[in-house]
Each structure stands twice: as C-alpha cells, then as structure tokens.
C-alpha cells in the first residue's frame, strides 16, 4: 500500500510530529504508515484523510498485489 | 454513581502515570525495607523475605526507569497492535517450547522437575514477548 501522506504533509508544511500530535498518535506510527510498514486501522485512516480534507482513496493507494489474499 | 468510562480513563494521563510510578517506587521501597527488617530479626522465613524483597525491588526499579530514564510512550493503535501480535507470537513459540520440554521429559525419563519446567516456560514467554514487542515497534508490523 502506498500513501500520499508525505506529499500532503509537505503541502501543509507539517512535520511528522505535528501530524502525529494533531491525530493523537506517536510520531513513529506516522513514519511507519508513510513507509508502508504499518497498515492503519480504518478509524485512523479516516482521521488522517479528514485532517487533510481528502478522500480515503486519494491518500491510501492500494495496488492489485495488496488486495490479494 | 460509578462511571465506568471515568474508571477506564483512570491513570491514563501523563500526570496520573507519574503518580502511578511514584507510588510504585514508594511501595517497592517500603516493602523491601519491611522484608529486610523482618528477615534481619527473623520475624518471617528467609525464603518469604527473599521473595518479597525481589518483588519490591523490581517494583522500585521499574518505577525509577519509567519515571526518570525511559519515559513511557503514548499508547496508540500501533503500540496496541504490536503488543497483541507479540503476545500471539510468544504463545506460539511457548507452545513449541512446551512440546519440546514434553518430549525431552519423555525421552530422558523425567529429567526436569515441574518447577523447572514452569520456570522455563515463564522465562521463555516473558523474554520472547519482550523481544517480539521491541522488534515490531522498531521495524513495523508488515501485513
């Protein structure tokens, strides 16, 4: 899964720590989501996209291989 | 009236946690001192005093570490998931160890006592849980 959180952060001029504080998670969690090493829950994903005022599909991009069992 | 939501939120804030660790240190220090005092004057058996002292010292040391050295991170969903995944992995590894110990005891005809087996299982489970937890928190949980 790819995410556009890094680009959005850059657009909003936010550091990982700023975003983490706004969302209410640890900075490391944002780092792992950005690098694709952690898949956030739907609730956290929704919180992130709501913060950036985007759609969930625009921020979290699933490839075909991600949807395979 | 008892509010279950407030009860669940108890000791979750930073201030409450500081108080919790201070209490841990105070209780640990107090019980260690009492156990040593009782042991010195032979008021309780040495084995009991030794157990209490060890437990109390652990409480005291954990309190110091959490309060001054390694401050507890904010617990978010990733930490919770890392904990869950670690304990699951730890259970599976412990199951393998239990089956190994079972066959060792069968083949070598009760070479290990019940106490030794229980100690090994407890030690292995705690250590594997700690290792897996730190691994998932360091490298992420790849699904």
Label this structure with key terms.
heterodimer; A: 69 residues; mainly alpha; two-stranded antiparallel ribbon; globular; B: 143 residues; 79% helix
Give your account of this protein's structure.
The complex is a heterodimer of chains A (69) and B (143). Chain A is mainly alpha-helical and 69 residues long. Chain A is built from six helices and two strands; from the N terminus they run βαααααβα. Chain A has helices spanning 5-12, 16-23, 27-34, 42-52, 56-59, 64-67; strands at 2-3, 60-61. The longest helix of chain A has 11 residues, at 42-52. The radius of gyration of chain A is 11 Å and the shape is globular. Chain A starts with a strand and ends with a helix. With 143 residues, chain B is an all-alpha fold. Chain A binds chain B through residues 24-26, 28-29, 32, 35, 37-41, 43-44, and chain B through 73-74, 76-79, 81, 137, 139-143.
